Fold this sequence. Notes:
Blueprint: H1 6-16, E1 21-24, H2 31-38, E2 44-47, H3 51-65, E3 69-73, H4 77-80, H5 83-91, E4 96-102, H6 118-121, E5 128-131, H7 140-152, E6 155-161, H8 162-166, H9 189-201, E7 205-209, H10 217-227, E8 231-233, H11 238-241, E9 248-251, E10 257-258, H12 260-265, E11 269-273, E12 288-293, E13 307-310, H13 313-320, H14 331-352, H15 363-373, E14 379-382, H16 386-394, E15 402-405, H17 415-425, E16 431-436, H18 437-442, H19 447-453, E17 458-463, H20 468-476, H21 491-497, E18 501-505, H22 508-520, E19 525-530, H23 566-574
Parallel strand pairs: 1-2, 1-3, 3-4, 4-6, 5-6, 7-8, 7-11, 8-9, 11-12, 12-13, 14-15, 14-16, 16-17, 17-19, 18-19
Antiparallel strand pairs: 9-10
Helix pairs in contact: 1-2, 3-5, 3-17, 10-13, 14-23, 15-16, 15-22
Amino acid sequence: MAKQNVSEQFVDILVRAGVKRMYGVVGDSLNPVVDAIRRNSAIDWIQVRHEETAAFAAGAEAQITGSLAACAGSCGPGNLHLINGLYDAHRSMAPVLALASHIPSSEIGLGYFQETHPELLFQECSHYNEMISNPQQMPRLLQTAIQHAIGRGGVSVVAMPGDIASQPAPEKSIEHALVTSRPTVRPGDAEIEKLCRMVDEAKRVTLFCGSGTAGAHAEVMEFAERVKSPVGHALRGKEWIQYDNPYDVGMSGLLGYGAAYEATNECDLLILLGTDFPYNAFLPNDVKIVQVDVRPEHLGRRSKLDLAIWGDVRETLRCLTPRVKVKTDRKFLDRMLKKHADALEGVVKAYTRKVEKHIPIHPEYVASVLDELADDDAVFTVDTGMCNVWAARYLSPNGKRRVIGSFSHGSMANALPQAIGAQFIDRNRQVVSMSGDGGFTMLMGDFLTLVQYDLPVKVVVFNNSSLSMVELEMLVAGLPSFGTANKNPDFAAIARAAGAYGVRVEKPKQLESALKDAFKHKGPALVDVVTDPNALSIPPKISADMVTGFALSASKIVLDGGVGRMVQMARSNLRNVPRP
């Protein structure tokens, strides 16, 4: 048997860790690794047009599967392009292994062509970031990187000079069993007892849930019923906690709706479950707060805590729920449910009033129709900006759908690349990219990746020829909009020219049939929807307290607008409220 080189050993270890594909752009220093992938039938090389796309795609794949995903960039400028997508993956706790190939090892530190220092550049967006400078470091260094990414949830970066990649792998190298999944973390009995006493002593308990409630829907519902608690959520908690939830009071934050803000501020015990919700101005400062999180570094960094619980949400609630006393007083819960329903009833008219006749098309209407027509297990990828607003308000979770976005990092241009990663996992699952025209054009070159691999992603472009969220930020700050207008082409024509299905929609009556036809198409498709650039629903009063950067208004509401099918769920929940 021929002796392996370092690249072949590197690829074999990735395969053992469960990696199915590596996204990237080939280049001289990376060529030995790409060639090793070519000769290994257990892993695919996915050629993208921009390395940023590679990192976003790997991050989306990792978020959906929960398993390690991989991306790569060649030396210098090549791996530098990875950094934005790696920041997003790291902040989303997505296990990603990034290979940053490097210049020849003999030239490092001498100002060689394309020289950078990856071991410094990726420090802030990784749990582990080291360079293989000697073949003897393999495979231990790569195994350590993999276990950091999986065990801590985030990015590991391995830098490797191209000449090292071509050298023979060390003989009798130590390859140990790899960690490929994370354990659950149970809090100690003392912490559970403290939390139990606080819950029993509180008259009004509210739960506020984030992405850490994934897999804990049943436990959250059981606990909420036991203590008669309203359940609100942050944006990243929406897909995990809103569906089949008779205690739902909506979402808090910039994109919030319903009674979540009131429920979190009018209780006397707020329990934060698996959330690193960044907007502390929306959190109360005069109630007792408990936070439960599997990442101890998240505890207390947004608000002053009365109790910090280091633990997995599901395991914590499994320990806690049987110990707390059953509460019978529903007054607080029922009052919040009524506030929630009233709030949704009041704003839903913003999107129902003559919307089917409005030209340019209301983006709210597009999102609502999209929600109705998409598959029950569809994966939505959502661009940052106003697409976040429409997704937050109109996409209906059901326990099977997924919604992926740059919700923590807040990058533009994430939706299309993330859709690529999502679609490679399963070509038969519907993947819909909700792209803003600004985000789509930023990485538009990778629409060609869809065509090249015949990926059946459906790209819906919300084309209002502007950077709408930035315009809103300027308006809130009292500034005239400037530098936000886009002169756009016919995106559908570009899609057709690239060899994909493309249709342009300018009238509301064309929308439903256009989306249905695109969804039926077996390959990649793009629907270019010309939407209203003035669809920036804001309160009638602009307060001096409203500033840029997703801040807080005096009324605690920044954006207003319809909420689609959520109002039906709120009405349904109200039926369970006892009548006087």
